[in-house]
Amino acid sequence: MPFTPLHFVPGLVMYLLLVSYVDFLALTMAVVFIDIEPIVQLFVFRAGPLHGMLHSLVGALFVAAPVLILTCRLIETKTHVLVQVFKVVGWNPEVRRVSLGTTTFGVYLGIASHLLLDYWMHSDIQVFYPFASGNPFQSHTLMV
């Protein structure tokens, strides 16, 4: 299920419950970024399982670092520009201070919600790669 809107639902629910502790941009980027692997596998390599190493628990740690860096950079550079644009059109938004903690929590929450949904639905994921094979969390009623 490469790049499906269904991955946003659990992340959005968690964001609404933890709005003070989670950065929405970080959560959204993490949910989307992790599906670069199946998209590349589907359209470039066209062989093998769609969900490879990045969908394992170890691979998720490697995904988190670039997403965190990219999100922090976007927040740092684009927030000021957006505030200036809003002021031009007469809307004076309150600038919400974003900390490294809320951004980091958003990234890990987005990756966790994405992976939990994928673990439940896909049989080709190796959850504990490289230590063990198989997917013990997969639902056999929703095999995809």
Topology:
Elements: H1 8-17, H2 24-33, H3 36-45, H4 57-88, H5 100-121
Helix pairs in contact: 1-2, 1-5, 2-4, 2-5, 4-5
Radius of gyration: 17 Å
**Low-pLDDT residue intervals, each spanning 5 or more residues:** none
Beta percentage is under 5%
How much helicity do the residues have?
Answer: 55-70%
Determine the number of helices (DSSP H or I, runs of at least 4 residues).
5
Task: State the total count of DSSP E strands.
Answer: 0
Please tell me the overall pLDDT: 76
Task: Describe the overall structure.
This protein is mainly alpha-helical. It has a domain at 22-121. It has helices at 8-17, 24-33, 36-45, 57-88, 100-121. Helix 1 (8-17) crosses helix 5. The protein starts with 7 loop residues before the first helix and ends in a 23-residue tail after the last helix. 28% of the residues are buried.
Descriptive key words:
144 residues, mainly alpha
Please sum up the structure shown.
58% of the residues lie in helices and 0% in strands.
